[in-house]
Amino acid sequence: MSDQNTIDDQIIDDWLTYMEASRGRTVRTIECYRGALMRLKEFMAGKPLIEADAAELEVFCGLWLHKKGVIARSRKPYISAVKGFYAWLKAKGNVKGNAAKELLHPITGHPLPRTISLANAEKLMWAPDMGTFVGIRDAAILSLLIGCGLRVSGLTALNESDLRTLEIECVPRMTIRVTEKGNRERIMPVPREAEALLRVYLGHEDLARIDRSFRDKAGRTDKVLFVSTKSPTLAPHEHIGEKRRLSRKGVREMIQRHGTKAGIPERDLHPHAMRHLFGTELQEEDVPTLSMSELMGHVDPKSTSIYAQLAMRKKMTTIDRAAPLSKMKTPVSELLKRLPN
After folding, report:
1. Which helix (H) or strand (E) holds 213?
2. How far is CA 270 from the centre of its chain?
3. CATH for the 3-92 domain, from 2.40.33, 1.20.81, 1.10.150, 1.10.760
4. What's the pTM?
5. How far is CA 15 from CA 11, 23, 37, 93, 275, in A?
6. pLDDT of 73-122, one tens digit each?
7. What is the pLDDT of residues 157-183, one digit of tens each?
8. With respect to CATH, is domain 118-312 assigned 1.10.443.10?
9. In this structure, are residues 191 and 174 in contact, taking their beta carbons and an 8 Å threshold?
10. C-alpha angle 109/113/117, rounded to 5°?
């Protein structure tokens, strides 16, 4: 590796450390930023990153990435990384001006999110074999994805200490403390069905035999909530504690496995399709936008408003009641009266 490559890599590492430690960016975001700056290094072809000018950065974020097959919407995180990186260089005094200051994000549309249907979500809930430990674990995971709308990152980060029991109108109910994007925390009520599956999972004798204890950053002992049952790279004596934590990839593969067996279309078999179902059903039940935002962990209520476009049952009822055709006699009016509701 050349000296310049080493210098650029060190500067990138320093910025990413700052973004994680001081700005609270998640590991996933840091990985995304690193990938963006590695491609910028490729584009610069050996020229020091601190010597990039505005024209070069504009070409990289636009035409060059486009020719590499990166669509407009997917270029947004690249631009965020470049703008953040050069703003930091300017603040540190490493460069005189901010070459990325005038970069603009591409204008893109807002496609509707893809959601799994209630019928397919029900099929998925019935797919795990409840006679096995893995099946019970999978059913508990699916119940939180469907019943609480958790992001997969929040689900896999759960520890046993995140489960709490509160008295709600003299009835004990379970809540979970969820930590997701930007290390933001929220307390989430757990539906009764999900609570029942979680308690079966936590009480399973196979779980009791697994060493899933670890120490958190404050030195307190905790236990990983959802465990992996095998590791292709670790010996059994090493597969303990934090290393037992089920990964996001493991959750996605589990959903694919059960969903395929249940005959659910592949396009519906990802964790966010269940999160979108959760948001859509809240909208169908006229849950206020502020409450929806809190339950889904949205900082910006605009993120929640997209579900108004997906609440089709409510729209259909409105159309059947209020559209002009419902208020006049048409050639099929008598026929429709004879059809079941």
Report:
1. strand 213-215
2. 10
3. 1.10.150
4. 0.72
5. 6, 11, 11, 13, 32
6. 888 899 999 999 999 999 999 888 899 999 888 776 666 778 899 999 99
7. 999 999 999 988 888 999 999 998 777
8. yes
9. no
10. 155
